Amino acid sequence: MGKRDNRVAYMNPIAMARSRGPPPSSGPTIQDYLSRPRPTWEEVKEQLEKKKKGSRTLAEFEEKMNERWKKELEKNREKVLGGSESSSKKKEKKRKEKKKSSRLSSSSSSSSSSSDSSSSSPESDNEVEKKRVKRKRKKKHSSARKSSEDSATTSESDSKDTSKKKKKKSKEEMEKEKDHKNFGRKRKRHDYENRYSPYDSATESDAEDEVFW
Questions:
Q1: In this structure, are residues 202 and 196 in contact, taking their beta carbons and an 8 Å threshold?
Q2: Distance separating alpha carbons of residues 50 and 44, to the nearest angstrom
Q3: CA-based Rg of the chain, rounded to a whole angstrom?
């Protein structure tokens, strides 16, 4: 039994496409575009004239609209200007009326004050003097209170400063005492170690042996 032949025939795709021929056209070709029906020069002129007429009608419509807008703007301007003028006139009238009323009130008050002053001049003088005396007393009391408050605040601040300084001094003294105590303890330990160290005892025993021998 021989081996089975699994080979497949190779087909060139380019050769296959050529053998099929050109593909079917799915739209107009270049020849169709070139051979299309074209208008004559007279027809082109007619189209241009129609376009010009259309633009003329548009221009006329725009001119009419502009004229209408101009008329409306003029009306609105007249209304606004008339309103502003009327408002300015009203303001002037109000000012004149206020001036007249103020003049009348001042004249009436001056006349009434002259009549009242002629009747109660001594009484008013006494009241004015009493008010002055009261104001002076109030000023003195207020100044005294302010001075007492300032002194109290200064004394409080001084006491706070002194207390802070005392606290700082006491802390420094305590630290110094601690340092002295620690230094004394260290010194005692050092002396004790020097007295009873094993090196010193060994040297003393050697010295004794030398003396005996």
A1: no
A2: 10
A3: 63
